[in-house]
Specification:
197 residues, alpha/beta, single chain, 3-stranded mixed β-sheet, binds glutamine, 12 strands
Length: 197
Amino acid sequence: MVRPRVGVLALQGNVREHAAMLESLGAAAVAVKSPDDLSRVDGLVLPGGESTAIDRLARVLGVRGPIVAAIAGGLPVFGTCAGMILLADRIDGGAAGQRTFGGIDATVRRNAFGRQADSFEADVDVAALGGAPVRAAFIRAPAAVEAGPNVTVLATVRGMAIAVERGPLLATAFHPEHTGESRFHARFLDRVRAAAR
Ligand code: GLN
């Protein structure tokens, strides 16, 4: 497949930077707001934003069930920040009634770096990507504090996992799309191309 169609869940949050990054890597980026939109993509990005709002809107708009089913069916999904929370099977510090889509056997803690370090940037080594460290922007970022045996931890900060992978699912606690870091999106697009073949 030459030009995969990749959806960016566009209910709330940072949609535009992801779309630009995906387009720069040769994908066609499309906004996903409905089950119909979802049915026409080869992969899906869950952006940063507010995981509680995305969860609520996804249910109201009837897109939650189809996303959960698509993940179970092997759709490649890449979640950043709030999107990492949404991809986790378990949530620590969720709002009352907050749910995730799930898919990655891990517990993700909201605002894991606390109030003092609400937002920060750091250079993070990610061996799986090779080359230079990743310049990562953390904005009220989550982190995985526990993960099952099928989950690969790609990077840690302060002893917590900030990039994880499980099959075609990839999640980062930070925002690579904010710092011009394209290697995670490229890795995700490899999964998209492989799954759509
Ligand atoms: N703290 C936010 C949440 O719980 C995530 C922050 C972000 O996506 N930048 O949803």
